[in-house]
Design brief:
The longest helix has 16 residues. Helix 2 crosses helix 6 and helix 6 crosses helix 7. It is built from seven helices and seven strands, in the order αβαβαββααβββαα. By secondary structure, it is of the alpha/beta class. The protein has a single domain, classed as Maf protein. It binds inosine 5'-triphosphate (ITT).
Length: 192
């Protein structure tokens, strides 16, 4: 089968987060890949981002019977021993950004990174995972109206603005999600 036939197949992004869909479409459309979206959910097992993405992709492909990607992301703060990390969803819903700022109130080392792992799986193949990381720091207050969740807290390296102050197309140039999806896209287009 030719490469062009494989890359023209559609891929379904399994997520309950519409912001992720918007970002992922912006990134992958530019790389020549079209995404469908399905919010069918998948169990988030205990483990690291790779474990969650691998299991989620395999679970979703069994339910849908066609190629899927899932994406598991998190904010990792060095001074908090890389918390919230894999607990990022729970912490966003409970402590929220103000709770993180409280935990960080006396902390000088503000280093943090966003990590994203994309899991890709088809009915005929084992899951593949792709990691993307963007380095930065936690600000002293929430800033900006763009993006979602932790974006107003996170100031990427070499920037004065938070992700919350950057429009989606700017965030998409170098975000954790850009890096994981770009790795995926390069690998995908290389498949024979
Ligand atoms: P899924 O249905 O895809 O799992 P989710 O929103 O639960 O959607 P994650 O588990 O990957 O996604 O994300 C963990 C938390 O981190 C969650 O609260 C997200 O809103 C947040 N998050 C993920 N990516 C982010 C980003 O780019 N900017 C800000 N917050 C982000």
């Amino acid at each position: 089968m030719s490469n062009s036939k494989i890359i023209s197949k559609s891929i379904t992004f399994i997520t309950g987060n519409p912001h992720k869909v918007k970002e992922a479409r912006g990134i992958l459309n530019n790389l020549g890949i079209t995404l469908e979206h399905a919010d069918i959910g998948y169990p988030e097992i205990q483990g690291d981002l790779e474990d969650v993405a691998r299991y989620g992709a395999q679970y979703a492909v069994r339910r849908l019977g066609k190629p899927v990607i899932v994406e598991d992301a998190g904010l990792f703060i060095k001074a908090l021993k890389w918390f919230p990390g894999t607990y990022s969803s729970y912490v966003q819903e409970t402590l929220s950004n103000q709770g993180i700022l409280k935990l960080m109130s006396d902390v000088e080392d503000r280093y943090a990174e966003f990590r994203s792992v994309v899991g890709y799986c088809t009915p005929k193949t084992e899951p593949e995972v792709f990691l993307g990381i963007v380095k930065g720091r936690i600000g002293y207050k929430e800033k900006g109206k763009y993006g979602f969740a932790y974006d107003p807290l996170f100031i990427p390296e070499d920037y004065c603005e938070s992700f919350g102050e950057l429009q989606t197309d700017v965030k998409n140039r170098f975000s954790h999600r850009r890096k994981s999806l770009e790795k995926f896209a390069l690998w995908y287009k290389d498949q024979k």
